[in-house]
Amino acid sequence: MASTNVTRAAPDWLRVDMLLGVVVRRGPLIVFGLLLVGLAWQAPNLLSATSIQSSLIQASPIAIVAFGLAIVVIGGGDDVVVGGIDLSIPAGAALATAIISDQLTNQGSSFLQAFVLALLGALTVGVVNAVLVTVVGLTPILATLATYSSVAGIIKVLTTNRRINVEHPTILWIRDESVLGVPVPVVIMLLVFGVFGILIHRTAYGAKLQTVGGNLDAAMTAGLSPKRYVASSFVLAAIAAAIAAVVLVARGSGMSPGIEDRLLVDMVLATFVGAAFSARNVVTIPGTMMGAVLVSFMSNGLILNRVDNSWVDGWKGALILIVVTAAALQIRRVKQ
Amino acid sequence: MTGLSTQPPARSLVGTASVWLIKYAFLLLFAGMVVYFVTQTEAFLTPSNVLNILRGSVIVLIIALALTVVISSGGIDLSVGVALDFGAWFAIVAMASWGLPWPLALVVALVAGSFIGVLNAVLIVGLGVTPFLATLGTFFIGRSIQQIGTDGGANINYRQAPDGFVALTQGSFFGMSMILWIGLLVITVYFVVLELSTHGRRISSLGMQNSAAKVAGIDTSSYRVWVYVSASATAAIGGILLSSGLRIYTPLAGFSYLLDGIAAVFIGASLHRDGRPNVVGTLIGVLFLGALGTGLDLLGIDFNVKAALKGVILVLAIALALLVSQRLPRVEAFFDRRRDIASA
After folding, report:
1. In this predicted model, which residue has the larger pLDDT, A145 or B135?
2. Which of helix, strand or coil describes residue B173?
3. DSSP states of A34-89 as a string?
4. Would the CB atoms of A317 and B144 count as touching at under 8 Å?
5. How far is Cα B303 from Cα A162, in angstroms, rounded to an integer?
6. Residue B73: closest CA among chain A residues belongs to which residue?
């Protein structure tokens, strides 16, 4: 009867510190999972086919802008003050929704023309960010916070702070139809996911972008020009904003003032929660996709449970903190 | 012939003028803007309007000073707006609902604001979360708490505020408005601590080279805790002034001060020789923003257009200030080389 022998003979996966390690590393996912199970327990409707479908449709604009943020974070590194961040993506997306809605409803343009103009609008924001960060040398957080508020102001001027309804057939098709049983917004999200996922994780460009963000000295030694990659990440983020705008116009059947505010919260949450899905706790495109889906499932679950709207922000803030705390504790463990 | 003089000969007149122009480019822009407003509006430079600009800038100044310390220490605090809201909220709640006398209400407000800073400090120093994400999290939670506490964001009116509380902003002392005295007091304390004491240099060293600061024996953790707690407490003072001036608490009002505060700090940093955040630079940044806002109002510009215009001018001004300060060494070197060639 040697109990010590038994413990010693226990397989690796049973060792307490290993288990603790898994719990710490996967802490955010465990918390998220428990929360979703709890929400589904209270409101079983959450797991019905229609509810899953609506959660995925809701996730699509969040995921698309979050891919943009993920690319900027991957290229800019995760330093506190000078690292990559782009808070202006939701404002760029809101600007694009305003342009699309105005073109389709007030100017009678074709969908293609409206989209091209919206893309140009969003790209302008992206290029301004890129210039401010790489040429002028502003820190990304200040540059994009400033462009966020400038663009939010410009949108108010353009729309005189009023809603614009859209009843264009293409927009209605995106809103109501499905391709092979998958709703069109979800198809768009998956397409963007595929393109960005391959670009960042399967091409030379993506590998170099990750190098620039992960280790600036190594990137410069290898002869890369970091500024070019950082600038390109802001342009890619702007393209993501324009695509998200199409889905946003379809979802809301038009443009409503103030959508950038809500989108900002969800975008940041999806991107940084998504980091918990990667092996090394870094921001990736597939992780971001999972993050966006989880965020919209949670929002839906809170609504189905009739949680007061005022609490939703608090829940999201608490989640950000739980996720990033778990990540910080893991880094501390690795260092020890 | 330079002889034995250790003093290098003066640059040419063109060189001196160019270096001077670049060094003071932002201040020249500021002066040009003031001249433009003076020619376009009659009221801009009247004493009462100048006083208005100063009085209107005090709360932004207080937030910007709080951020100066945080950014100087190499961090960021997105939750100062929430700390301001908590100060504004609890000052009114303490008097209106709890029936406390107003001096005690001030203490309650400061404690409530500091609570945000304590939460930030636990996350950043205790758990090692990055300041951006930690303060973003407290920002969301603080916003939610305000919405829950006010039934979704309703204002709290407090028309019968005690005279002493209202006098904090509207009273006067030795012929100067009380709010200006408070602003002067806060900036003096910040100037002494940040620019004149060793504490200021140590906080700055955290931001420049944290590991070197540690090796030098500085207790970086406790300095960092103080930075975040004092930033929130300072923001709460701004909240008290806001409540005292309006006699209303409006939930989520603090957020609008965040961008102006950050912008003022970065304008100030770009005016500094080494690009560091500093108290005097922050003051210049705040005054620039105050003059810009008031000038646009006096021009009679539509509210929405004003918001857009202010954002755009802000981006341009910061870009100019930073671009210019980066070019200064190169321009100086260029004229020094020309001078050396000429004297050789």
Report:
1. B135
2. strand
3. HHHHHHHHH-GGGGSHHHHHHHHHHHHHHHHHHHHHHHHHHHH---TTTS---TTH
4. yes
5. 14
6. A81
Of A147, A312, A329, the CB nearest to B315: A147
- B169 pLDDT band, cuts 50/70/90, is confident
Give the pLDDT confidence score for residue A3 in this predicted structure.
46
Of B131, B133, B143, the CB nearest to A320: B133
**pLDDT tens digits for range A247-257:** 999 988 888 88
0.90 exceeded by the pTM? no
**Cβ-contact A165, A254 below 8 angstroms:** yes
Q: Where are the domains of chain A?
A: 51-257
**Residue B221: pLDDT above 80?**
yes
Kindly give the pairing relationship between strand B172-173 and strand B176-177.
antiparallel
DSSP string, A136-204: I---HHHHHHHHHHHHHHHHHHHHTT--EE---HHHHHHHH-EETTEEHHHHHHHHHHHHHHHHHHSSH
Pairwise CB contact (< 8 Å): B139 & A316: no
Is the Cβ pair A80, B74 closer than 8 Å? Answer: yes
**B chain contacts of residue A128, beta-carbon cutoff 8 Å:** 315
- Does pLDDT of A6 surpass 50? no
Confidence of residue A67 (pLDDT cuts 50, 70, 90): very high
| A83-128 tens-digit pLDDT | 788 999 999 999 999 999 999 998 888 999 999 999 999 999 999 9
Burial class (CB in 10 A: 0-12, 13-18, 19+), A70: buried
